[in-house]
Amino acid sequence: MCGLCGLLGEDIHWSDPLSAELPRRRERLQRITAINRVLAPFRLNVCDFQGSAYLVQGPTGRQELASGLDELWRKAHAIIGRPLDPLDPRLLQHLEAAS
Amino acid sequence: MSIPLTVITGFLGSGKTTLLKRLLADQDLSDTAVLINEFGEVGLDHLLVEDLAPDTVLLPNGCVCCSIRGDLKAALLNLEVRQRRGELPVLRRVLLETTGLADPAPILATLAKDANLRGHFHLGQMITLVDAEHAALQQRLHPEWLAQVAAADHLLISKDDRVDATVLAQVQERLSRINGGAPVQLARTLSGADPLLRSQGPRGEAIASELARWTLFQPVDAHHHAEAQVCCLSFDAPLDWLTFGVWLSMLLRCHGERILRVKGILEVINSEHPIVIHGVQHCLHAPVHLACWPAGPRTSRLVFIVRGVDTGLLRRSFAAFLGQPRVAA
Q1: HSE-CB of B247 using CA atoms within 13 angstroms
Q2: A86 and B317 in contact by Cβ < 8 A?
Q3: What is the DSSP code (8-state) at residue B120?
Q4: What ipTM was predicted for this assembly?
């Protein structure tokens, strides 16, 4: 548990922060910002849930809770009915236009 | 102390059990436990090695790739418990012989993700045996062959006495084109004392020489080789680890079955030490912090071995998420 934030945290994942310089909640918000940048063209949004899960929200109001990145991609797939493909040219166009 | 698990894989009939029998006859492997995963009702391979290694454990009923991750976990935990009770001598390593049809990724997933195993066992080396006589045919007919070769940290060629020098050279070239970062050696030259069998995998000291091989490795023929393609990305600027994690986890989630291997050394923002990543299909090892950069230019480098993935889109995707890489070769 993070003593500063009081968060229990998620399961260990290889993509977790490499050092503990920032409080966990701040790291988590930074990750959520990075995820939302990618999810925007799919009309999906993610927000933090109790510091231990992600709340994934679709364009129709459907919501799913996900623990960890792997489950987040799976739940997002379930909401929009297709996998979120980082090689999708439409996503790449959106990211290239934004940068 | 965490014990390295060395995986010996290879297609059916590639000589895994023969190799294991020969290695286990050697006193150098007296502190080694052996796990054998045999496909079929009667585990014949288990019987073949039993007279040499009484602590052999047979993983029952089928293939590592589908049904027995739980069995692998149970067998490893059983070894750990018996060792702690003093029923087994102190183990220095575990050898796992997979079935010829096994996909190596779930083994890695079992070790990487299971909370009970973490801390007790880690992946040492993934060793793949290749039958020199049937390599071309097996590559053409069996997708498992390609997955096993691409996943290898070290490649062993068996049955080289059954082919002439020209065919052997063709097999060696075939392997170096698919997985140029993995050393290739004749299986009959491997002994129980070989440092390969004592390797700690990405945690060990040998990682520096392995990284040097990646750096030297340049894909040829516009990266095309039958169904396998190699894509190398190099970049000078430090990476944002969080964004990299979002990109790679999304990529592996969507295309994991077609990304046979990913490995890389990365310079990460706010980290003085280079980070080494290793993965097979959907599953990635925990990142390893190196004490310092290996000799040579300080350049981040990612190597993908893929099947049926547009490598142009892969490069474009990396650039869109993280910035513009230089493309090697």
Answers
A1: 20
A2: yes
A3: T
A4: 0.88
Q: At residue B116, what is the residue type?
A: N
What sign does the CA torsion over A94, B258, B151, A16 have? positive
For residue B261, with 0-12 CB atoms within 10 Å meaning exposed, 13-18 middle and 19 or more buried, which class applies?
Answer: buried
Closest CA to B129 of B9, B255, B298, B308: B9
- Out of B245, B254, B268, the one facing A84 most closely (by C-beta) is B254
Whether the Cβ atoms of residue B139 and residue B110 lie closer than 8 Å to each other: no
Q: Is B223's pLDDT higher than 50?
A: no
Q: What is the 3 state secondary structure string of B1-53?
A: CCEEEEEEEECCCCCHHHHHHHHHCCHHHCCEEEEEECCCCCCHHHHHHHCCC
Distance from CA of B116 to the nearest CA of A (A): 13
Hey, what CATH topology would domain B3-201 get? Answer: Rossmann fold (3.40.50)
Of B112, B249, B254, the CB nearest to A15: B249
Integer distance in angstroms from the first to the last C-alpha of chain A?
A: 36
Q: Tokens 């935990």 appear where?
A: B77
The mean per-residue pLDDT over the stretch B224-235 comes to 73
Q: So what's the pLDDT on residue B63?
A: 46
Residues spanned by CATH 3.40.50.300 within chain B?
Answer: 3-201
At the second CATH level, the architecture of B207-327 is 2-Layer Sandwich (3.30)
Give the whole-angstrom CA distance, residue B186 versus residue B68.
Answer: 30
* Angstrom distances, CA of residue B1 to CA of A62, B38, B91, B198, B269: 47, 29, 10, 14, 31
Q: What is the mean pLDDT of residues A25-54?
A: 91
How far, in Å, CA of B145 to CA of B55, rounded?
A: 29
Residue B292 sits at the chain A interface (C-beta within 8 Å)? no
